[in-house]
Write a structure and sequence with these properties.
9-stranded antiparallel sheet, alpha+beta, 16 strands, 3 helices
Length: 287
């Protein structure tokens, strides 16, 4: 149907009027959403959850480069590097609604040697209310874990070999260990990432016939909390290093040749233990 010149002018004027009204009415709301997501009402302060990552060995804070820790397999060990990804942090509210952390695409990198990575401030998806529990993914799920996602260090340096499935390590824990009574210590790369299924159990990249996603979800015990509009809550997320070795599947370093990469059975058993490595507590205020 053709439109007359006058009609086109009227429609054009109407569209401009609507656009101006929408921009005038919606701009503050858009600015508010950009600033602090759904938590901000008008000019009030955002509701903020700060996660502090705490790496422990049982009841003691992890001290790097110190051969003083012991697991149930009678192995003394020291940790030289500890790096890992936490993603998809989800708050489960008591009314059945869930809220996910959106900062940095919902991914956070933790490095025991970089203090700034031990804090993750979330205020883009934290509404006030009462929450029954918190859950998260350890590592990166299949959708998130693709090669060249991170272009800059240190995250970039968590890359997992392309021929072994690509993407990124879920965790790098480099350590040295020795048996009780032994003087010599041996290196061990406790690395988690995508596993491989090998044809005929021949551990060779040419024999790979499938891949296994080893990320896992954690439902934090005793993680119920309340937060009010404009409040800052500090959540301390503790990871017990010894739980990776002493859980459902006792981990003896001597059974493996200096590493877990390319050993899906070892990574699977480690992940079963790791699901119980985390605990949480809350405090009020900031850091």
């Amino acid at each position: 149907m053709k439109t007359s010149g006058n009609m086109r002018i009227q429609l054009s004027s109407l569209c401009v009027f609507i656009a101006v009204v929408c921009l005038t009415a919606g701009l503050p709301a858009l600015q508010s959403c950009t600033k602090s997501g759904i938590t901000e009402e008008g000019t009030s302060k955002p509701t903020t959850l700060i996660i502090r990552f705490e790496n422990m060995v049982d009841t003691l804070p992890l001290v790097l480069d110190t051969m003083k820790y012991k697991n149930l397999a009678d192995d003394y060990y020291k940790v030289t590097d500890l790096q890992y990804f936490v993603s998809n942090v989800t708050l489960h509210r008591d009314d059945g609604i869930v809220y996910r952390a959106l900062n940095n695409d919902g991914i956070h990198y933790v490095d025991a040697r970089i203090p700034s990575t031990l804090y993750w401030t979330i205020n883009a998806s934290v509404p006030p209310g009462t929450f029954d529990s918190i859950s998260f993914t350890f590592g990166l799920n299949a959708e998130m874990n693709y090669s060249y996602r991170f272009l800059n260090p240190p995250e970039r340096d968590m890359n997992w070999p392309e021929i072994l499935g690509g993407g990124y390590h879920y965790m790098k824990m480099n350590l040295s260990w020795r048996k009780s009574g032994m003087n010599r210590a041996y290196p061990f790369n406790f690395h988690l990432g995508i596993g491989q299924i090998y044809r005929g159990n021949i551990i060779n990249p040419d024999s790979i016939e499938g891949y296994v996603q080893n990320f896992f979800n954690v439902n934090l015990p005793a993680s119920a909390f309340s937060i009010s509009q404009g409040q800052v809550r500090l959540l301390v997320l503790t990871m017990n290093i010894n739980s990776w070795f002493n859980g459902e599947n006792e981990f003896d370093f001597a059974k493996y040749q200096n590493m877990m990469m390319q050993n899906q059975n070892a990574m699977h058993n480690a992940c079963l233990n790791g699901k119980n490595a985390f605990a949480v507590r809350f405090t009020s205020g900031g850091k």
